[in-house]
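[Automated response] Your request has been received and processed.

Submitted sequence:
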Amino acid sequence: MAETPVQPSTALTWQLAPASPRVGLGEQAQTQTRLLSISMVGFLLGFYAMHNQWLQLGWMTACLSTLLASEARSLIWEAWRADRWMQGVAVIFLLGMARSSLLESPGMTLNSFSWGWAGSLFMLLTLGQLWQVGKQPRSPSWMGMTLVLAATLTAVASYTIFSLLSEGSSIGMPLKNWFVYGGWNTVCSGMTFGFASVWASFRWRESASSSARWKYFAWLLATILLIFATLQTLSRGALMALTVAHIAWLLPQRWRAAWKPMAVLLTCMACFQLSAPILSRLAAENLAADLGVATETVKSQSQEFGVIPPNPAMRAVERGDNGRFAIYTAAFSSMTTWQDWLFGKGLWSSNDAWSCSLWWYPEHLHSVFLDAGVRGGVPALLGVLFLTGWGLQRAWKLAREGESLWFVLACFGAVALLFDGDSLFTMLSVPRFEPLVFWTPLVIASARFEASRAASAQRPLS
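Generated structure:
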């Protein structure tokens, strides 16, 4: 049975308020709710269309400051008053922050301590806003429109810039998001484009029943463009997460309802694999002309020259673990005492605590779950795994009721960050995309789960 989400109790008060002085209060509260939504628009755009995280945080800080200065600040705290899952999130955050403040953290400086607190507190406040916005009935529609439109436009524009307009451009180069840092890391770009492609695919399937056929084809076009953008980043983590997300779609919906998104994904993957030799040859010719070397030299050393390989599937296998297991081994080797296993190194400890044994300097542990274990010990790892499982359970229940988007997106995020990402406990991580791909679907799923429960409790018995 489809979910019937409801507005929070305060919103119900606004809707039912009589024509009296209370009407002004209702209008003010609705204005604050819109301000929360505007804040979340900045949150979403920050991963696609803002040059750096400071623009994103500046946008959200301006909205948040206005909210906290008004009576509407109670809207943010409602997430932790009304939702036990969100209370669990807050407990994990606060325990990690307390441990990092009270116990020794190797290499922690006053600067890292200050920014650590700021990043964690801002993350909590962001999740509170996201929860409040996510439980609104229309939020999946406008949030999806915002995210998919931003992702599609930035993907197309980035492809155009790096393929045609920039110096040394070629259509056979791995894709980066030009709008973030002037060329965001291919892995980060792939993760965010892949996440958006899943959302676009969901909207495409939902629009099949719409009388406006242009919407159906618009969402299908966005889905195809974003899948190709993800593939052209050559991010194996994004591709793995995308595949698992589509498999997860089959679980609550069965094959008949979910075969079309899977068919589109497989078709795009096949087309990219078949077109890769052409893309690789064009890139090799352009790059060889610029560098004054033989085309065959570039083609045979495509990875070193940074061009799409003629056989992406084989190259993905040949790349192996890409140094990740060396990172993981170094991380476990750094846990030398029982205190390390029980309390961890601290959220804001220096990477030198584990990276000094490596022959290069990774900026993070490339697994949010391993990071939780190293920074917070076994209890923190178990806490994150418990919250992930609990959140997926809530998303699964919504999926069984007909709202499968959050379960699919949550599966994408959990798989994507299994072998990538930095920290779940800050808005200021190095990769930055953890709040989008991990927290966003789980927080919204929990918010809508609570809304569904509230609706069921208010429904009269027949």
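Summary generated for your ticket: The CA atoms of residues 162 and 184 lie 12 Å apart. Residues 1-25 have pLDDT under 50 and may be disordered.
If you did not submit this request, please reply to this message.
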